[in-house]
Amino acid sequence: ESTPFPPARIMRAIVAFEKQRRERWDKDALDMVLQAAALDMHAVDDRPRAALPTAASALWAAARKPFDDRLNDSRCLLVPSAALRLQVELAEPAALSPEASAFRPFAQMCAWLAHLVVTAVLPTEVRSEVLQAFKKLASACEELGQQPETAPCDPEGLCRLAMAVALVVRDEKGDFGTEALEGLARICVQRAMDEALHWRPQQLSVLASAYAAAEVSHEGLFRKIGMAAERHTALGNEWTTEQLLKLLHSGWQLGQLGALEKLLRSLHADAGLQRYVREAAARDLPLLFSVLVLINDLQMLEELLRSQREKLHSVSMQGLTTMLREWPQKEGGGPALAHTKATVVREAVAAAGRKAPSLAELQILVDAASEDSKALSRLTELAASPALLTSMPPVDTSWQELRTALDGLLAPFADAGVEVPRLEAACAARLVTAMERSPAEPRELATAI
To answer: For 96, which DSSP code?
Structure first.
């Protein structure tokens, strides 16, 4: 009460000071500032509650050092206080009104609260309170989507609100929030993105990455994002590397890269992809591979694989098998492309030795290795992979699931005409273990074998 400014300001100052130079902060003093910010979230007696931008600022600072470590203390009231503030705002019409100015700071507050939910180790009861608040937010977003013509259209507010819901959806790993994101997508497609230039490149990339984080694929939304992004490119508006790659990664992850094809061809026509090919990081190689296959630039594709060949060993199994699945047909590429495919196969087989591929990835890898000049050697090495041999289903798996899993492991090699005695022995051992645990009816056993 003695300070002439909100506790959020003190928090931001402490964060800025900590960023410049690490300090030993008094834990009780930090807790006192956090509690003051919690009290500031709501009106008390004749003292008004903090404005929404101030509330968002307090949560922003709480997610950073030195405050982030103090959030785990059961006495910290900031997060539950912010969750209650979220519900209070939803009960009032201003936060989600298209006419009011509260929508953007409300969405920013939600986004930072969601960030704390997924990054902080909150006490169980606090986490439960926050999730209840987000369920109410999700319901409100669903209702907004049912009437897009009356929904707010502020780009910053919409992308931050989508990110807030998406972060919690990803963390909860359930059906929660999917309909809310569908509703927000409907608002964007039917109304909010009609004026493409109202959306900055950063907002487009944040919106796309929100849906990728929640694994909610919406073709209409990505087509709208692609149109807006293409418009910016045509006018010469600059994209940062982070913004463009975040957008492309999101579309690629959701299988919506085709919705961004016009943007990619526009960038390609202005030689805008060459820099990304030259400077590609290992994690970007599968994405750029898919991009160049989509726009059918095999010459640049060969340049990508030749110049970044040494980085292939750092590409994930998912990335390597995606490249193999999308590899151009033989008539489309030259000897250099065929030689590089052998390298990708070798790296993928080596990666399978460290981590077992999924059954779908295994099928792709076996198919690709079967076409390799060293097919027998590659397939034998793959089948003897320690990770693959230990990837058997658990002993309490049902007979039907066991049959499906073992068939998925053995069938690709059988179709390729390769004998895999070690893998067959491992599968047989798992069957014996399953029989000892729960003797099966002859019919079930026969189908499993």
So the answer is: T
**Residue 369, exposed/middle/buried by CB under 10 A (0-12, 13-18, 19+)?**
buried
Give the span between the Cα atoms of 325 and 116, in whole angstroms: 38
Nearest Cα to 422, choosing from 433, 410, 411? 410
- Contacts with 24 (C-beta within 8 Å, 6 or more apart), sequence order: none
Distance CA 257, CA 253 (A): 8
Which are the contacts of 315, defined by CB distance < 8 A and separation ≥ 6?
282, 283, 285, 286, 323, 347, 351
Question: Cα separations (Å) of 146 from 96, 186, 202?
Answer: 14, 8, 27
Which tokens in the block code for residue 50?
A: 């903090």
Sign of CA pseudo-dihedral 141, 58, 199, 210:
negative
Find all residues with CB under 8 Å of 13, minimum gap 6, and list them. Answer: none
Give 44's DSSP letter. B
Tell me how far apart the alpha carbons of residues 180 and 199 are, in angstroms, rounded to a whole number.
21
pLDDT in tens, the chain (449 residues): 445 789 999 999 999 999 888 878 999 999 999 999 999 999 987 889 999 999 999 999 999 999 988 887 767 899 999 999 999 999 998 899 988 789 999 999 999 999 999 988 888 888 899 999 999 999 999 999 999 999 999 999 999 999 999 999 998 877 678 999 999 999 999 999 988 789 999 999 999 999 999 999 999 999 999 999 999 988 888 788 899 999 999 999 999 999 999 999 998 988 888 888 888 999 999 999 999 999 999 999 999 988 998 999 999 999 999 999 999 876 555 677 888 899 999 999 999 999 999 999 999 999 999 999 999 999 999 999 999 999 888 877 888 888 889 999 999 999 999 999 999 999 998 888 877 776 655 455 555 45
The secondary structure of residue 355, as a DSSP letter, is S
Classify the C-alpha dihedral 326-331-333-335 as positive or negative.
Answer: positive
Query: Which has the closest alpha carbon to 205: 188, 189, 229, 185?
Result: 229
Rounded Cα distance, 258 and 261, in Å = 5
| CA pair distance 255, 235, nearest whole angstrom | 27
CA-to-CA separations, 97 to 146, 231, 341, 375, in angstroms, rounded: 14, 28, 54, 63
Tell me the three state secondary structure of residue 47. strand
Residues 6+ apart with CB under 8 A from 224: 188, 189, 193
